[in-house]
Amino acid sequence: MIEFLSIPSISSDSTHKADVRRAAEWLANDLKNGGLRHVQILETAGHPVVYADYLTDENKPTVLCYGHYDVQPVDPVDQWQTDPFKPEIRDDIIYGRGTSDDKGQVFMLVKMAETILEATGTLPVNLKFCFEGEEEIGSAHLDGFVDAHLDLLKADVLLVSDTTMLGMDQPAVSYGLRGICGLEVRLRGPKGDLHSGVYGGAVQNTLHAMVDLLASLHDHHGRVTVDGFYDQVKPLTNEERKVCETLSDDDALKKELDVDTLYGEEGYPTVARIWSRPTLELNGVYGGFQGEGLKTVIPSTATAKITCRLVPDQDPALIGALLKKHLKDHLPAGVKLEVELMDHADPFIMPVDHPALQAAHNALEKAFHTKAILSRQGGSVPIVNTFHDKLGLAPILMGFGLDSENFHAPNEHFHLKNFDRGLRALTEFLFELSKQMN
């Protein structure tokens, strides 16, 4: 795994295009060495997909394992304690970019198959692998790839190890994901930056206008004020609220995040706000002078990046349209508005009585010696909808990372204890699934 993690497969950076391919080649070679068959590197209009399979009996259920071998950028580099692409193990924790998201968990899926093949010479189910290199840039070409390879990817169950557990010793199997709607907002004022002494007080300050516009998106109780934003949101059932109240540990979360207080939509326990309520977040706001010291200008432009996490049955396209209307209706005088809709993905939820979910529960309990919790995830995994809608696959989201492991941030890491227990859970899952679905 150290070699795999050492490859800087940053899909968003064109200067690393060769590294992304090198990671695909490394992964394909490891699959071959692990006894998998029909290993291929399949091209897309962007980064390639790595495919492999082991098909034993058409009467057995088929599991399609998904993961991604691309990683996030490492900025800011100066906040890493060690080189992000020179993995180190300290106190049974491995540090490096991709350890938790998602190379470490992809490696587990490969070793799951290899372990069973070495021990028994065959597999209890049919197995296919689809590992992509563009998840961190929105899986831009995966839909087209799936459309072009429907027969190749045909299966019964989708197994994804790109989610998190609820705690170090508390495994979870997820049945729901939030969707996403992203946009970039740009305001334009005067034709160029202006001297604040010469023009201050005579023209709209574009940054002031942006602050006013963004402030209109929430009330003082954490609720989104966009008309129609909540119209499609189903209320929590009493059982869902009770589970969220039980799992919410605000003091522990404040300690983990080093904050004095938590914040969010009033009237809901913290876990409910993360799992089951929609949000609207500012991801970046910038404009004007950013350098050291002062530069007395009135900026001509200002930009904000926004993402909304959506819950069933919210439609990302509708939410995007509602946001554009709100921004237009609340636009301060003296500036022009541009809105560009960007990433989007539907929320997802599956029936909780599916036999594959029961197989996952049984496997996790055997590996962790405690009952798994049926959970939702606050994040989005857009490919789940792709595989479900195009191939009819029931997704099992069984990941082994922790929310505190700094994925997408400096000093990303992965607990090797959970690598070991997770590997056992994955192998048990294939045997349990064979029992549940035969």
Automatic annotation (TrEMBL):
GO molecular function, one term: peptidase activity
Residues in Peptidase M20 dimerisation domain copies: 175-334
GO biological process, one term: proteolysis
Keywords: Hydrolase, Metal-binding, Protease
Pfam families: M20_dimer (PF07687), Peptidase_M20 (PF01546)
InterPro entries according to UniProt: Bact_exopeptidase_dim_dom (IPR036264), Cyt/Met_Dipeptidase (IPR051458), Peptidase_M20 (IPR002933), Peptidase_M20_dimer (IPR011650)
Annotated NCBIfam families: PRK07907.1, PRK08201.1, PRK09104.1
Record-given protein name: Acetylornithine deacetylase/Succinyl-diaminopimelate desuccinylase and related deacylases
